Amino acid sequence: VRIGAGAGYWGDMVDPAVELIEQGGVEFACFDLLAELTVALLTRAKMRDPGKGYVPDVEPILRQALPAARRNDVGIVTNGGGANPGAAALAAARVACDAGYPDTRIGTIEGDDLTGRIAEIRDSGWQFAHLESGEEDIDRIADRIVAVSAYTGSDGIIDALDGDADVVIGGRLADSALYCGPLMRHFGWIFERNPDLIGAALTVGHVLECAGIATGGMSSQWRLSRDPWRLGFPMAEMSADGTAVISKVPGSGGVLNEWTIKEHLLYEVHDPFCYLLPDGVVDMGGVEVKELGPDCVQLTGMTGRRRPDTLKVQIGYEDGYLAEGRTMIPWPDALEKADFCERLVRGRIKYLGVIPQEMRFDRVGWDA
User: Fold this and answer.
1) Is residue 230 over pLDDT 70?
2) What is the DSSP string of 26-92?
3) pLDDT for residue 151 is more than 70
4) What are the backbone dihedrals phi and psi of residue 279, each rounded to the nearest 5 degrees, phi first?
5) Is the bond preceding 332 in cis, omega lying within 30 degrees of 0?
6) Calpha distance 8→104 (Å, rounded)
7) Is the dihedral of CA 305, 307, 311, 314 positive or negative?
8) How far apart are CA 246 and CA 200, in angstroms?
9) pTM of the shown model
10) Which of 74-83, 173-182, 328-337 has the lowest mean pLDDT?
11) What is the pLDDT of residues 106-141, one digit of tens each?
């Protein structure tokens, strides 16, 4: 089965995704639109308007990608539902109807939002230990929490695809789950019996999840990148034995080679030998990367262990403000005027009783 990257972040380009859907021969295009801060921002948007809270890009992406996907029988999977997958699904339905595809089946995945349950969960005796610092619980920030969401896995995606969904929209689905779910469903892999194969699917998902980053968008191989202004997004052809070939649409821009893939294998991984994900624990220690030709790389030796008993939870909380301002100051006496402006701002802040942790003033260009 062939699966491709449709987006790697909120604000990503859409034309490479359409190119992949129309020319890549993929069965699924996966759009990863969330980052660590995003869910908290979207939760605030939902608090202001119950019809918001999903990534606004969902609508323009689908306006461009959905007609091509329906024509080519390509499924779309995304975590762009953010803090409000239901509202995102309604928006997707409107786009589908406007595009002439009112029969589009949309699967919605919810359940990751724990914001309203945090007190109940803690009262039951559960502690939210910090994964890196070792801080035992969230007492320090409990009264400043904005959003709480669990990184969820492939289960809901598989269920939605079993229901013949053309578009699957979830909330804080783990990035790699967007790819792992369709692959598990296609091959019939199950958590209890196929940890190595699921580990392979997660490794492939990790390579693809940031889209153009793996094809020269952010790489030491930038000198080799051809026509980077029309960057091609990566896709993977996965085999039942857990091996995969990573490529992109022939003739598309960018570069895909052994090093772009190796770089991305280690990108945002806390431990490549024990990479904890909701669908499994990935071990990249035995992965072999081999170039088969131009823009074509084979991955073998991917393994994994059974999924963890717990999920990682992301907590966004209020922690003050960061503000930046710029003032244009003309000559004559520009430097003296700048000094005056600094005194004015510092005096105003003191007058208002605000106690900043840090302030910095730079005079840009005064000696140019």
Assistant:
1) yes
2) -SEEEE----TTHHHHHHHHHHH-TT--S-TTHHHHHHHHHHHHHHTT-EEEE-TTTT-HHHHHHHH
3) yes
4) -95, -10
5) yes
6) 24
7) positive
8) 13
9) 0.91
10) 328-337
11) 999 999 999 999 999 999 999 999 988 889 999 999
